[in-house]
Amino acid sequence: MLSQNTNDVNRDRAYADLRAKLPTWDEVADAPLPAIARAIRHGGLGPTKSVRLREILRTLRDRGIPLDERAFARMRSAALWDLLVGLKGVGPKTAACVLLFSLGRPYFPVDTHVHRVSRRLGLVPEDADAVRAQELIQEGAPPAEVYDLHMLLIRHGREVCLARRPLCSRCPVNDLCPRIGVVGAR
């Protein structure tokens, strides 16, 4: 959740500040909203994210799920996916990030870079929204390749296949790109 609408540096800083000020998830769940917002302010949108974060933690606890690192590890992936996307403020990208990065399970998050690159390369239909792109890539990617594919698509989107002015002349896959002929000047 802290990664929403911010960059990796600010996300990591917000997380480190949160854990320094409120070391356990139970402390976060019980903290006043202004304290949480101050702790995560470097990630941006502190007042909004603090409400969602505390609400999610309290909802999990109310359902009898302990707020520790082992709780999700014991759950089956499909059940955990359903639980996560059923929480207010948690969409498919956030749920997939939890499963992939925190638990090492082959779930494919689609951020703005992955969405753009996957459409441009024809991995998903041009009109696929991020949720549909996530579903399609999740279905098609070999589980052992999910992490690497995700990281490579993000890197490609950040460094080469830029939103406004893609660097097609430097693109290592431009011979495979169906958009090269369409866009021309790229």
Count of separate DSSP helical elements:
11
Roughly what is the average pLDDT, rounded to an integer?
93
Shape: globular
CATH homologous superfamily classification of the largest domain: Helix-hairpin-Helix base-excision DNA repair enzymes (C-terminal)
What is the element string, with H for helices and E for strands?
Answer: HHHHHHHHHHH
Domain module count: 3
Beta strand count: 0
CATH class assignment of the largest domain: Mainly Alpha
- Determine the CATH topology of the largest domain: Endonuclease Iii, domain 2
Secondary structure category: mainly alpha
Low-confidence stretches: none
Characterize the structure shown.
- The chain is an all-alpha fold.
- The longest helix is centred in the first third of the chain and has 17 residues.
Provide keyphrases for this structure.
3 domains, 186 residues, Endonuclease Iii, domain 2, mainly alpha, Endonuclease III, domain 1
Sum this structure up briefly:
The protein is mostly helical.
